Amino acid sequence: MEKLNNIIFYNIDHSIRLYRMYAQKQLREHGFKITIDQWLVIKCILENPTITQHELSELVFKDNASVTRIVDLLIKAKYLEKEINPEDRRKFILHVTKSGEDIIKNVQEIVLQNRSKALKGIAAKDLETADAVLQKIIANCK
Amino acid sequence: MEKLNNIIFYNIDHSIRLYRMYAQKQLREHGFKITIDQWLVIKCILENPTITQHELSELVFKDNASVTRIVDLLIKAKYLEKEINPEDRRKFILHVTKSGEDIIKNVQEIVLQNRSKALKGIAAKDLETADAVLQKIIANCK
DNA sequence: TTGAAATAATTGACATATCAATTAAAAATT
DNA sequence: AATTTTTAATTGATATGTCAATTATTTCAA
C-alpha cells in the first residue's frame, strides 16, 4: 500500500500528461493552431460571457498570471477581444470573436473523440470511483 | 461546459496541480530549496545510479530538453555532478553529491506526510480502482 | 571501410506555471 | 472626505513543457 500511495501520484501525473500530449497532437494534425489551454479558456468564456479573468482563473484552475498571458495570446490570434468594464474599471469584458467561436465549434468533434479514445474499455462504475477518489484528493489538498 | 467537474480529465488535472502546489509549499515552508521535479530527478538517479538522461526522461515522463535543464540546475545547486561516459561519449554519468543525498533524506519525511494527507479517508480498494483506471488511460493514450 | 542512419544530449523558441511585487481602481473604515 | 484595505489585472523572474533543429558520437549497412 505504501507503494501504491507513491505510485498513484505518479500515475495521475503520467495519465494527464499523456492525455494532453495526445489531445494536442490531434489538434495539430487536424491543422488547428490552438493549444488545449487556449481552447479551454475560450470555451469557458463562451459559456460564461460575463466572466472576469480572475473568475476564469478559478474555473480552469490556473494562476491569474497564466490567464493574463493566455488571454493576450488569444487576442493576438484574433480569437478574443477585451474591453474595460465600465461598471468596474479594474475588470475586463472578454468577447469571443467569430473566428474564436468557429474554432471551438470545429474542434469540438476532436475533443469528444479524444475523450472516448482515452476512456475506452473503462467501466462506468470504475470511472465514477476514480472520479470520487480524485475529488477526495482535491478536497484533502485544499 | 459539460459540467467541468464531471469530466474526469478536469479532475485529474486539478488533483495533480493541487497536490503539487501543496507538496511544493510544504518543502518551501520547511526551508528546502528544491522543486518537486528536481527532487524526483535526484531520487531516480540515486535508485538507478547508471541511468542516462534519456532513460531518466522516460522514467519521469519528461522531455529530454526538460531533463537537460533540470540537471543543469541541479548541478548549479551542487546536488549533482556529471561526467562523460567513457564507454559512450554521447552519454553522461550522473553523480549525486553528498549534499544531494542529504536533501533527499531530509525531504523524505515530508513527502510521506504529503501523500498521507492527500490520500486521507480514501479506501484502499477505491484507490486500487482509481489506479487501474489511470493505467488504462495511460495505455489508451500511448 | 566508408557513408548513412540512429542515438544522446543540447539549444532555441514559444507556451504555461508559480511566486512576488506592482499598479489601478473600488470598497471599507475612521 | 481622507485613509486604509481589498480586489483585478499585469509584469518580472525563474522553472518546466513541448517541438524542432543541431551537434557529437556510435552503430549499421552497402
Automatic annotation (TrEMBL), chains A, B:
Residues in HTH marR-type domain copies: 1-139
Alphabetical list of PROSITE patterns matching this protein: HTH_MARR_2 (PS50995)
Pfam families per UniProt: MarR
SMART domains hit by this protein: HTH_MARR
Listed InterPro entries: HTH_MarR-typ (IPR000835), WH-like_DNA-bd_sf (IPR036388), WH_DNA-bd_sf (IPR036390)
Gene Ontology terms, MF aspect: DNA binding; DNA-binding transcription factor activity
Keyword annotations from UniProtKB, A to Z: DNA-binding, Transcription, Transcription regulation
Domain of life, source organism: Bacteria
PANTHER family linked: TRANSCRIPTIONAL REGULATOR, MARR, TRANSCRIPTIONAL REPRESSOR OF EMRAB OPERON
UniProt name for this protein: HTH marR-type domain-containing protein
Organism: Flavobacterium suncheonense GH29-5 = DSM 17707
